[in-house]
């Protein structure tokens, strides 16, 4: 006679509950309070910690960029230029350093940063001169002050 | 014509130096720098290199780790071609945007190809019984920058 299916008195019992619990608690060991020991409190904290770390990975990029911009602004103000002027003139002179590099150069290579600031200043002045043009009045306009009676 | 608020531009008037004298001064500076490079009067060189879609500030004998796979075996020498800036103590060569390949040479060796630590990506909406957990392991490559050389071919 072939018996199909397990008999009723056979039950399956969970034998590795300890290790399943440890898998979660290992991420909570450095937390404060009971959530580093008690599983029920720990899964909640560990879940939140994972979600926060995923979101933070996206925001770290924004945060670091803002930090670099602040540093570049501070360094360029030391050389007498404002940040928008500095960056726009560097880009117009076809220097494609990104903000991370310029911030690192401003910290570790002050002479190089000074030369970059001088380059940006010179390009700015050339831009002003180019904007002024010839200095002559355009033809159709006779004077800027019109008196009418 | 009477003076209004728009007769003169809001920026202070600037005069650029004489172009002829400037050209002479530039040529002098370029010659000096060329001479310094030819005689080897520089100490440690640093370079800004564009590699793996990132910019790195490197010197000789330093390690770089990138978060992707490089199609080169361990121990292969690599020449990095997109150099944006090279500098020493007394002079810097700024590329617009890149420096020439006959001017700078940056050599690196592939040391290690590993995987990153397992990063956990988790999404959770409360009260909706929704959670997804994904473990991301990125391949990483470690390079050692061997040398940065410059050649005196400025003009």
Descriptive labels:
heterodimer; A: 149 residues; mainly alpha; c-terminal domain of poly(a) binding protein; 5 helices; elongated; B: 155 residues; mainly beta; 4-stranded antiparallel sheet; flat
Walk me through the structure.
The complex is a heterodimer of chains A (149) and B (155). Chain A is an all-alpha fold. Chain A has five helices and no strands. In chain A, helix 2 packs across helix 4 and helix 4 crosses helix 5. Chain B is 14% helix and 43% strand. Chain B has one helix and ten strands, in the order αββββββββββ. In chain B, the strands form three sheets. A four-stranded antiparallel β-sheet of chain B has the order 2-1-5-6, with no helix packed on it. Chain B has a four-stranded antiparallel β-sheet with strand order 3-10-7-4, with no helix packed on it. A two-stranded antiparallel ribbon of chain B has the order 8-9. In chain B, strand 5 and strand 6 form a beta hairpin. The longest helix of chain B has 21 residues. Chain B starts with 18 loop residues before the first helix and ends in a 5-residue tail after the last strand.
């Amino acid at each position: 006679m072939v018996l199909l299916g397990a008999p009723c008195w056979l039950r399956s019992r969970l034998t590795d509950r300890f290790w399943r619990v440890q898998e979660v608690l290992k991420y909570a060991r450095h937390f404060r309070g009971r959530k580093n020991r008690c599983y029920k409190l720990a899964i909640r904290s560990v879940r939140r910690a994972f979600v926060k770390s995923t979101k933070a990975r996206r925001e770290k990029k924004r945060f670091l960029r803002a930090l670099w911009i602040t540093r570049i602004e501070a360094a360029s103000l030391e050389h007498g230029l404002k940040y928008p002027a500095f960056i726009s003139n560097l880009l117009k002179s076809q220097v494609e350093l990104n903000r991370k590099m310029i911030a690192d150069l401003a910290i570790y290579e002050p002479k190089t940063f000074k030369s970059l600031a001088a380059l940006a200043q010179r390009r700015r002045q050339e831009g002003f001169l180019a904007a002024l043009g010839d200095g002559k009045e355009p033809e159709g306009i006779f004077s800027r002050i019109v008196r009418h009676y | 014509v009477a003076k209004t608020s728009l007769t003169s531009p809001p920026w202070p008037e600037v005069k650029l130096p004489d172009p002829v004298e400037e050209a002479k001064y530039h040529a002098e500076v370029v010659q000096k720098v060329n001479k310094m490079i030819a005689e080897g009067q520089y100490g440690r060189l640093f370079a800004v290199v564009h590699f793996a879609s990132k910019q790195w500030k490197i010197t000789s004998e330093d390690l770089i780790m990138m978060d992707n796979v490089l199609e080169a075996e361990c121990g292969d020498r690599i020449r990095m071609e997109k150099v944006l800036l090279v500098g020493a103590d007394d002079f810097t060569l700024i590329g617009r945007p890149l420096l020439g390949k006959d001017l700078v040479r940056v050599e690196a060796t592939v040391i290690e190809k590993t995987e990153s630590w397992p990063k956990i990506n988790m999404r959770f909406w409360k009260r909706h019984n929704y959670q997804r957990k994904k473990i991301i392991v990125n391949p990483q490559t470690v390079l050692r920058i061997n040398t940065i050389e410059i050649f005196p071919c400025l003009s």
